[in-house]
Write a structure and sequence with these properties.
Blueprint: E1 4-9, H1 17-30, E2 34-38, H2 43-46, H3 53-59, E3 60-63, E4 103-108, E5 111-116, H4 119-129, E6 133-138, H5 140-151, E7 155-160, H6 176-196, E8 200-205, H7 212-221, E9 224-226, H8 234-247, E10 253-258, E11 270-271, E12 281-282, H9 285-297, E13 301-306, H10 317-335, E14 341-346, E15 349-354, H11 367-370, E16 371-372, E17 377-378
Parallel strand pairs: 1-2, 1-6, 6-7, 7-14, 8-10, 8-13, 9-10
Antiparallel strand pairs: 2-3, 4-5, 11-12, 14-15, 16-17
Helix pairs in contact: 1-10, 6-7, 8-9
Length: about 400
């Protein structure tokens, strides 16, 4: 069995991460294991310089029941995070310059760039730390590199987290419940403002590639939604929203858009430099829809961005329950000597599954069972026999 494990969080923070870290630390102490936190995600294993005390202080944090005792009472990540991809580094850390790493030449939007695969340095740092197992908490990007390490022979246990709930092989990712709970609350509060001004309220929410966050929030608020998996007809959408407004005694209507939602003839506009996993920020599709509604229907709108606030603060009960359970499941798998496995929920039950193959991409909404493509709403029928989160992994 492992004697020393390292744990890290990568990508965007979500409520519940600290509960995982605490559970792993406490279980590790009970199993007489050393638990070492790697700060700033995969950056901690690419930039760590074992010969520099300041680098050690920045990236290495031994974890004990004492220094993790209260961390589960707050959101965010005690270990901090980054979007570093060791297989596609745009720049080599200063202390590694002069060393040779595999190079890849790429081109995007007419711009050529070079990336470096510093996996050999990650493996070297893990060996120097005496790490037997890596516990990686992240979304599909972070876990794609966890899969790479497993393929390199490192023992890896993964834990899925993302507000988007789009990691393959599981029906639930940490952070999802808190995000949609807060989104539902924000929309219900803002009804008073949208109604007072008799406008069409447009809400934008996270969901780059998958529409789970928008779909489930729309499900409980009973409003229309647009998701990346289906391109709506713009004229029909506007007509529906205007009809909703006219039939409402308070003379307003609401629609919720995933950030990656598109309509026929509209293409998402990307801005800024791509991150280490090739993702760029998207222009606000809510503003684009507002402009179209103004031009085509002469209706006034209010656009509200439901983004970072949804991932901030404390986890709700569901996220804390799942986070605590995932942390303990990871330690059970570690004790059994497993590798390449991820905690998950399958058919409504906790289970250990394979770390997803990165080639599969994000998990997508099943349009046939979950989305009404005629009314641009969630599908409310035929739910009997489904697991609690209304879909199967």
């Amino acid at each position: 069995m492992s004697k020393r494990i390292v744990i890290l969080t990568g990508g965007g923070d979500v409520p519940g991460l600290n509960a995982v870290i605490k559970q792993v630390t406490y279980r590790g102490a009970a199993m007489k294991l050393d638990v070492v936190g790697i700060r700033r995600g995969w950056e901690g294993l690419t930039h760590l310089n074992r010969e520099d005390p300041e680098s050690e202080k920045r990236y290495i944090l031994p974890l004990t029941p004492m220094n993790t005792r209260t961390i589960d009472r707050t959101g965010g990540t005690f270990l901090h995070s980054s979007r570093t991809n060791p297989a596609k580094m745009k720049a080599i850390p200063d202390h590694l310059k002069g060393l040779t790493f595999p190079v890849k030449e790429s081109e995007k939007d007419g711009k050529k760039f070079t990336t470096y695969d510093v996996t050999t340095q990650v493996l070297k740092n893990l060996e120097s730390l005496g790490a037997d197992t890596v516990i990686a908490i992240g979304g599909d990007d972070t876990l794609s590199y966890a899969r790479r390490l497993h393929d390199e022979g490192v023992k890896v246990i993964a834990i899925p987290k993302t507000m988007d709930n789009d990691v393959q092989n599981t029906e639930y990712c940490i952070g999802f419940s808190t995000a949609i709970t807060r989104a539902e609350s924000a929309i219900q509060r803002q009804r008073t403002t949208v109604g007072s001004h008799e406008r069409i309220g447009i809400f934008r929410i996270f969901g780059r590639d998958a529409g789970y966050t928008a779909l489930y929030t729309a499900y409980v608020t009973n409003i229309r939604c647009c998701i990346p998996e289906f391109k709506v007809n713009l004229d029909k959408l506007i007509s529906l929203l205007v009809a909703d407004k006219r039939s409402n005694p308070s003379n307003y209507s609401l629609v919720l858009l995933s950030e990656g939602a598109e309509w026929e003839g509209y293409k998402t506009i990307h801005i800024g430099e791509a991150d280490a996993y090739g993702h760029q920020k998207k222009m606000n599709v809510g503003d684009a829809l507002a402009a179209e509604i103004k031009e085509r229907a002469k209706e006034e709108t209010i656009v509200s961005d439901l983004t970072y606030d949804l991932r901030s603060g404390d986890p709700d009960f569901t996220d804390k329950l799942v986070a605590c359970t995932y942390g303990n499941m990871a330690m059970d798998a570690l004790a059994e000597g497993q590798s390449g496995k991820m905690t998950g929920i399958v058919n409504g039950c906790f289970d250990m599954v394979e770390i997803p193959d990165p080639k599969l991409g994000p998990r997508k909404v099943d349009l046939g069972s979950m989305y009404n493509t005629d009314r641009y709403r969630p599908n409310y029928s035929n739910k009997r026999g489904l697991p609690i989160f209304l879909c199967r992994a």
